[in-house]
Design brief:
This protein is of the alpha/beta class and 617 residues long. The chain has 15 helices and 21 strands. The chain starts with a helix and ends with a helix.
Length: 617
């Protein structure tokens, strides 16, 4: 019978995966052409660092690939491949991405020409091809990009003249054509009037940018017959000359006064030392320098919210910079800043403190302290052989610390914060291996333009509560479910969803796998094999009890996180477990899963209420 249950469970899991793939196929038929276009680029370049490994030609929807961002209609809006060590040529097919806004291919080894088809990218806001080996001329068709604000083609080998069509792009705010082999006159009309010679430097054959003021007409000699009239006429002429010359003088003065770094950062960047309470607003340049221009070698992790980079600030401190992955539209800056400030108010020793943020027309970045020991998931499953496994006492502390952090979000934040993606990968560990809950508040932050936030499902397969998956509505009880699955990850060392378990005829869902072993009375098979016998069997039983209480199918029957904290501290678990067993007797023909046991977990700070545990990390 148990074998049949496993077969059915595995079949249902496989069916779920197939359903997801079919749904993705149906939803993203329009993404086929865009996927083909990106694959054409992939085949044209060499990728020694395998940054394009996720670009699978068999998947219709490119929105699942790393370095690709899509909008809500599953159309590509951003390709982010700067510092990727790619070599090869650009392809005309890249011009077939109708909603592309950001094309970032800077600091690679790309050769060849800029395809004229790039002029079809009429929604393009930023084109960054700087520091490559691109040759040929600048296509006249780039003049079609009427939404283009940032054009950086510097440090290439571009030749020929600067196309006059570019001067008609009135939206252009940042231009850098320096360090190329361009020639001829620098246009001084249209949008180019606002750019200085810094935009064109190190092009030996370009004529200098030179604006000559309107000539001042000589004053006629005063008439001997009417010296007063002559003086008045001379004064009028001088005044008229000054009137015509004033705009040129003012323009030259403004250009001289313009800060040099305008062309290397976004315009109107506010003072980087602005602080909102304890929250610092960073300049984009400061974070670019800290992360080596968001180098791929500094990537700490990737997730649904974006990539995280390791960085070192000028004061020497290490930080983690989360580069949010979202489509940016005009007018969201104030709401974004408001949400960031709300997140920063959640201060607790078991919550990852937000150190600051950066907000520009093209970027949304969050800055956190660097967590020396990574995530619980990385310590459980990606540790090097030279590093010992997490000890059992450390795992107990992680369980308690993460529970306290979540309880604070639910009960001591106003308004309360629902995490919506509680898992081992989002529980970080500081230098002392104390648990710190990360990524909280980001679901709300990333959906601040969405009017149906409560129905936008975010999470990871294996961690999502059944009612959240079926209705799209989240509550603190969905976090409790995710916490229960995280406890099972902590105990077993296993992934919440793992198709590899099918090879042993086991359930792919961790929760189902655990329940199956408990039915067969195989408790010893549940505990992480890396621990060997170095764990407390009674405590392991009680952590599993708590995990099962947290992952009940009915949200109403799950405990609150504040109750979970009390049970971990040794108050009420036995009673809750007894009641759950009685209820199960009616549902499972008097079968029980685990014997009763007492488990007082004592912590030196267990008697302190959450508010008193708060404090900057």
């Amino acid at each position: 019978m148990r074998h049949m249950d496993r077969v059915i469970s595995s079949f249902m899991a496989a069916l779920l995966v197939c359903a997801i793939l079919v749904f993705d196929l149906v939803l993203n038929v329009s993404g086929n052409a865009e996927g083909d276009a990106l694959n054409a680029f992939k085949t044209s370049v060499a990728d020694p660092n395998s940054v394009l490994q996720s670009w699978d030609a068999t998947l219709v929807n490119p929105c699942t690939w790393f370095h690709v961002t899509c909008n809500t209609d599953n159309s590509v809006t951003r390709v982010d491949l700067g510092n990727a060590n790619l070599s090869g040529e650009l392809v005309a097919q890249l011009g077939q991405l109708p909603n592309l806004q950001y094309l970032e291919l800077y600091n690679n080894n790309i050769t060849g020409k800029i395809p004229a088809e790039f002029g079809n990218l009429t929604n393009l806001v930023s084109l960054d091809l700087y520091t490559n080996h691109i040759s040929g001329s600048i296509p006249e068709t780039l003049g079609n990009l009427k939404k283009l604000r940032f054009l950086r083609l510097n440090n290439n080998t571009l030749a020929g003249v600067i196309p006059m069509a570019l001067t008609t792009v009135n939206s252009l705010q940042v231009l850098d054509l320096s360090t190329n082999k361009l020639e001829g006159d620098i246009p001084t009309n249209g949008s180019f009037q606002s750019f200085t010679e810094l935009s064109f430097k190190d092009n030996p054959r370009l004529k200098p940018l030179n604006i000559t003021p309107a000539p001042i007409s000589p004053t006629p000699p005063p008439s001997s017959g009417n010296s007063a009239t002559g003086a008045i006429a001379g004064g009028v002429a001088a005044a008229a000359a000054l009137l015509f010359a004033a705009p040129a003088i003012a323009l030259a003065y403004c250009r001289k006064r313009r800060p040099q770094d305008y062309f290397f950062d976004v315009p109107a960047e506010e003072d980087p030392e602005v602080h909102l309470g304890q929250l610092k607003k960073f300049a984009l340049r400061e974070l670019q320098v800290a992360t080596d221009n968001f180098s791929t070698k500094n990537i700490l992790g990737r997730g649904g919210f974006g990539k995280v980079y390791k960085g070192r600030l000028t004061d020497g401190s290490l930080v983690a910079v989360k580069r949010l992955k979202e489509e940016r539209t005009q007018g969201g800056e104030l709401q974004f800043q408001t949400e960031v400030e709300m997140i920063s108010l959640a201060v607790h020793r078991n919550l990852l403190r937000l150190r600051g943020f950066c907000m520009t027309p093209t970027e949304r970045l969050l800055v956190y302290p660097f967590m020396a020991n990574g995530s619980v998931a990385s310590c459980l499953r990606d540790r090097p052989e030279s590093k010992p496994p997490l000890e059992w006492p450390v795992r107990k502390r992680i369980a308690l610390g993460s529970a306290r952090g979540l309880a604070y979000l639910h009960d001591h934040c106003d308004p309360k914060i629902i995490h919506r993606d509680v898992k081992a990968a989002n529980i970080l560990l500081d230098e002392e291996y104390e648990a710190v809950v990360g990524d909280f508040g980001l679901a709300k932050l990333m959906n601040y333009k969405d009017t149906h936030v409560t129905t936008a499902v975010r999470g990871t397969i294996g961690h999502i509560a059944p009612e959240y998956l079926s209705t799209g509505k989240s509550s603190e009880k969905t976090d409790v479910f995710g916490y229960g699955v995280m406890l099972l990850e902590l105990i077993t060392g296993q992934r919440a969803f793992d198709l590899a378990r099918l090879a042993n005829d086991d359930d792919v869902m961790l929760l189902d796998w655990v329940k199956g072993l408990l039915k067969d009375k195989k408790l010893e098979a549940l505990v992480d094999a890396d621990l060997g016998s170095e764990y407390n069997e009674e405590e392991a039983e009680q952590l599993i009890q708590l995990a099962l209480l947290c992952t009940q199918s009915s949200a109403m029957e799950r405990p609150k996180m504040s109750e979970v904290v009390r049970m971990l501290e040794g108050d009420g678990l036995a009673e809750k477990w007894d009641q759950w067993q009685k209820d199960e007797m009616h549902r499972r023909d008097n079968q029980t899963l685990l014997p009763n046991s007492n488990w007082p977990i004592v912590d030196s700070a267990s008697h302190i209420p959450p508010d008193e545990l708060s404090g900057p990390r």
